[in-house]
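Hi L.,

You mentioned the student needs an example of a multi-chain input paired with its predicted structure. This one should do, with 550 residues in total across all chains.
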Amino acid sequence: MKITIVGLGLIGGSIAKALAVSKKHEIYALDVNEDVLLDAMSSGVIRNKAAFEDLTDSDVVYLCMYPEGILDFVRANASHFGKNTIVTDVCGIKTQVYSKIKAVSEENGFIYIGAHPMAGKEVNTFAASDAALYFGASYILIKDNAPKEAFEKLESLAKEMQFGRIVYTTPEEHDKMIAFTSQLPHVLACAYVMSPECPKHVGFSAGSYRDVSRVAKINEVLWTDLFLSNRESLVDEIDILIDNITKIRNAVDSADADELKALLAKSREVKEIYG
Amino acid sequence: MKITIVGLGLIGGSIAKALAVSKKHEIYALDVNEDVLLDAMSSGVIRNKAAFEDLTDSDVVYLCMYPEGILDFVRANASHFGKNTIVTDVCGIKTQVYSKIKAVSEENGFIYIGAHPMAGKEVNTFAASDAALYFGASYILIKDNAPKEAFEKLESLAKEMQFGRIVYTTPEEHDKMIAFTSQLPHVLACAYVMSPECPKHVGFSAGSYRDVSRVAKINEVLWTDLFLSNRESLVDEIDILIDNITKIRNAVDSADADELKALLAKSREVKEIYG
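Structure written out for the whole complex:
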């Protein structure tokens, strides 16, 4: 297949590297950083910088920028996408972005499928990208009336990238789940390291500190965008969390051992059953 | 050295296994579970079940039970400890336990040194214990007027167990730090998995879900004891956390991108500087 990747950061770079493994595809790319394009070419990951024609005759175009950037690019290049080109994205929130891109695709007659590869790292560069980033991860696709063959093509490429499962969902369900599984841990990690004790942790910290604080090494531009694109679901989840922390807090504060034990036992059971 | 370990769970079992590697020591142990003692004997980790005499002539006695159990054991066996025996513990909180054991040691003339090996796992059994559990971890010691040679002996054994650093502190400073580095992540993990979305996470979750929820697989008996033994520091840290989560929540809720970006950037800086 001919594949164009727009944005060679961690996500786009990892897609390019994973699809380059088999040497079966012609891969082109765009990036605002010319050095990254040169790196990707010289390391054999991409064939060349993409031109407008490549948007027209690619089988698949992966849009791997920030949410705002994706929408801007689609609007600016709507007329360049070919009628049989599958345009897909990697955007971590869907409700706000999906319907807008879908509208542009219907108006301009190209195929758009909303997608979210569920993988990441605290470092967001092409240098950190990795052919194995998606190994075992979920590839989430927004189910709609796009051609069946287009979904099959993306599924087949996802298998090449070694995703562990394909999940079909709606934009609303996606954003509700992502608020809990991905955005909330980032909120938590950032709030956690704001404690005045944090700078003194060395010598007193082990695995549980390391794990809960890991994603505090956040890209604040990207995540501000992601959080604000999913305000309602995220605020709901934060409020649920504060409520549950407060329950444990009050049991500790009032030295209510039975209540505290019951709360912790319930959490243990959830974790044991649902992993 | 002759060493007695009381309690062969994850922590005591790992001490036994780590010290058994060199085959230089005579290791004895006690456990309420006879099967665990048989396992430890048949696998060559300990020489035999400990008798009262072993408490008297051991160089070091490691007390590796729950906080309440440690105190009960010290009180019940105060007269059995030898004058040159170093009694030490592994208790995850210090203010409440340390001074009580210290009082018993002064009254009965044995050496007591408060300690906390900063390592753990979500599974709390001898089967899960591991000679390498302490590799690179911190071994925290409460500095006081116990003999210098006793501290040196514990330090030398800690090096055999492959601890990465020895940290000296006070009971108060220890408990304040542990509230933040260890107890708070456990509170968080438990509160996090209480969300109604949690049971549906599969397919939508990746590394950040896994990391923040890991320690929700909690031993509720042990941690109820630990939390309630450190109430004041823990409630303080929970309140600071709720306050910081609320700051992020309000920035998201009011769609204040500048404020949100500034808060996340501050967290990123803390994490980058202090790790």
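You could point out the following to them. The mean pLDDT of chain B is 95. Chain B has eleven helices and nine strands.

Best wishes,
N.
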